[in-house]
Design a protein that fits this description.
Layout lengths: L6 E2 L4 E2 L4 E2 L4 E2 L3 E3 L4 E2 L4 E2 L3 E3 L4 E2 L4 E4 L12 E4 L4 E2 L4 E3 L7 E4 L4 E2 L4 E2 L4 E2 L4 E2 L4 E2 L4 E2 L4 E2 L4 E2 L4 E2 L4 E2 L13 E4 L4 E5 L1 H6 L4 H15 L5 H11 L4 H12 L7
Parallel strand pairs: 1-4, 2-5, 3-6, 4-7, 5-8, 6-9, 7-10, 8-11, 9-12, 10-13, 11-14, 12-15, 13-16, 14-17, 15-18, 16-19, 17-20, 18-21, 19-22, 20-23, 21-24, 24-25
Antiparallel strand pairs: 25-26
Amino acid sequence: MIHRTAIVDPSAQLGQDVTVGPYVIIGPKVTVGDRSTIAAHAVLERNSRIGTGVKIGYGTIIGNDPQDLKYKGDETWVEIGDATIIREYCTINRGTTATHKTTVGQRCFIMSYVHFAHDCVIGNDVVVANGVQMAGHVTVDDKAIISGLTPIHQFVRIGTYAFVGGGSRVNQDVPPYTKAVGNPVHLYGLNSVGLQRAGFSAETKLALKRAYRLLFNSDLTVSQGIARVRAELPSVPEVEAFLQFIEASQRGVLV
């Protein structure tokens, strides 16, 4: 199921039942898993590992050189997880020698005109809406949602189950389970809709709400708030993950 106008490098490896559309270019050292679909005019330039059941949209370019002046042609990669959907005109650059790869997890939904720069790490079940532009070394944890037309600064981290509103200029870390909106961007409480849809228990949601209030809606410093949360709230894995994310932040977290 390879269209006669497609160009496939001899070193590329295509699995079973792969569909390759018109004028697709598949370059060297590319592997495509079973039952994947590559739409017309897409380019898998080189050094890309595509999982099973992946859908790559019209005109998308994967595996091109990182846009980094320090890059000198080293062998680096892109990895795309199983059952991920990448829509039209997305660009996903290879990594640099810092991490050697850019990765996108399983079951992600990447909408049109999204850009993932070098060394980005996208978790599983992430939704990225139209026109999101990520600089290098951005990390997005599992099940986060990023709304459209959002630029994200290099080295920013977005936590699990976080929600970023459309057009928000994200220049600092977004803690897990929270909602960040605006330009300039600020936190606006927990991602309560996302937590409800995911089936979090009432006890977990209440503990997260109390932790959020102590850290962001009080006169305490961040370190004081973290200490109070650990001293006063019941031990809940989600709360501890919330605290550890904030403690590990290099760019600082939004408020």
